[in-house]
Amino acid sequence: AQTLKERLAELIPAEIENVKATRAEHGKKSFGPVLVDQLYGGMRGLPALIWDGSVLDADEGIRFRGKSIPEIQQALPKAPGGSEPLPEGLFWLLLTGEIPTQEQVTALSKDWAARSSLPSFVEEILDRCPPTLHPMSQFSLAVTALNHDSAFAKAYQQGISKKEYWQPTFEDAMDLIAKLPNIAGRIYRNVYGGGKLPAIDADKDYSYNLANLLGFADKPDFVELMRLYITIHSDHEGGNVSAHTGKLVGSALSDPFLAFGASLNGLAGPLHGLANQEVLIWLRKMQSKIGENASDDAVREYVWSTLKAGQVVPGYGHAVLRKTDPRYMAQREFALKHLPENPLFKLVNQVYNIVPGVLLEAGKAKNPWPNVDAHSGVLLTHYGLNQMNFYTVLFGVSRAFGVASQLIWDRALGAPLERPKSYSTEAIKKIFKDK
Ligand code: AMX
């Protein structure tokens, strides 16, 4: 069967022509006005980047290469006996726009297993981290250190031609994804205990191995959850902090390890991936304050008290989305299937019925609906993964799929160094003085 790299090598020349033709036809057309507010306002809504793997619609949510989450759940290959999509297939789809065969997906699982071991100095870096260092900081350290063996950095030093950039980038991207379970598993066991890491099993899929390294492979539903989790967290178009950071740093021809290390530092922020840990912390605090099985009124009052304290309600709102996140819905479906009676799931539902009304009444948030992070913690903790400050590491493992695939295409298409123009407030006042 054809490998992913062989298929990419076929697709790249045509895509280079496609980009050329698109630029020739549309390149000089203006694409929306830039408002001064957008310079101050975090560039919301500013068309500014090309990102091929996924596009986000404000109402409908994410589509991966044109396919919605329910569509990819349907179309992508599954593990034997499983019903959730394998992230291996998603990676193939992100890179090629095509649905791989079962055989191609199995070959990817094996390829990643073969690339999965960590250099011993990276293991030592992790082993020396104090358990008080946040797992995301440890994650970022380890990924950055993998740059030691970057095929791209080496090839660049040896004077590789621009046309060939994508090839060592592909190798680094594959190595990066392959090594993440060993990094995540090592951090988890170092910080929370749980004994020696098992070896990666080359006959099993990526998500099984991740679950096994964390110590949860004896729970088949948790393995299924990992397949779904990685798939839906992989990519969310290019403008979010982690994706854009990876692309930006990669544009300096920093290799995929350096670029994705930077992505992780952005994902570690509470307005981005850290919300994933914050939600469960917030729910637990609520439970300790108002008790379990609290009334709707008590929950509503607690939500108001969060807002009045000048804090955000974690897991709600989004910079682009304006409806309930389909990634939230996919996790809700999973919960309805596997843990409908879980009390925390019931609380998540109760909160879902109350928070949007409160946020609407408060009148500030442009989107009162839940995002992906409002639901992930309750699923993880159901299976006993209770260490909330580890949750964003799982988001990070997943996000590598999206960032890595775009880095490969950026190098294949010769994406230039990013360098937008900035202005001082003085300059803005001067430019617009008489306008
Ligand atoms: N709770 C309380 N206030 C909120 C809110 C929420 N969940 N969401 C937005 N707001 C407030 C903002 O803080 C802002 O207040 P300000 O004018 O006083 O600064 C105002 O509403 C307008 O914000 P916005 O335009 O609606 O949102 P944004 O694009 O600036 O920010 C986001 C988006 C996600 C950072 C924000 O909704 C938020 O802080 N949510 C809670 C944290 C969270 O869940 N983050 C995860 C997002 C998904 C992800 O990346 N993993």
Describe the structure.
With 435 residues, the protein is mainly alpha-helical. Helix content is 60%, strand content 2%. The chain is built from 20 helices and two strands. It has helices spanning 4-26, 36-40, 69-75, 87-96, 102-114, 120-128, 135-145, 151-157, 166-192, 206-214, 220-233, 241-251, 256-267, 275-290, 296-308, 326-338, 343-362, 373-382, 391-412, 425-431, and strands spanning 54-57, 61-64. It has a two-stranded antiparallel sheet. The protein is globular. Bound molecules: amidocarboxymethyldethia coenzyme *A. The site of amidocarboxymethyldethia coenzyme *A has 21 residues, from loops. One of its GO terms (biological process) is citrate metabolic process. It comes from Lentinus brumalis. This is Citrate synthase. Keywords: Transferase. Belongs to the citrate synthase family.
Strand content range? under 5%
- Which term fits the overall shape? globular
Taking strands numbered 1, 2, ... along the chain, how are they ordered across the largest sheet? 1-2
Range of helix content: 55-70%
Mean pLDDT: 96
With helices defined by DSSP (H or I, 4 residues minimum), what is the helix count? 20
In whole angstroms, the N-to-C terminal distance is: 63 Å
- Which residues form runs of ≥5 with pLDDT under 50? none
Strand elements, count: 2
Question: Can you list the ligands bound to this structure?
Answer: amidocarboxymethyldethia coenzyme *A
Structural class: mainly alpha
The helix/strand series, from N terminus to C terminus, equals: HHEEHHHHHHHHHHHHHHHHHH
* Largest sheet, strands/sense/barrel: 2 strands, antiparallel
Radius of gyration: 22 Å
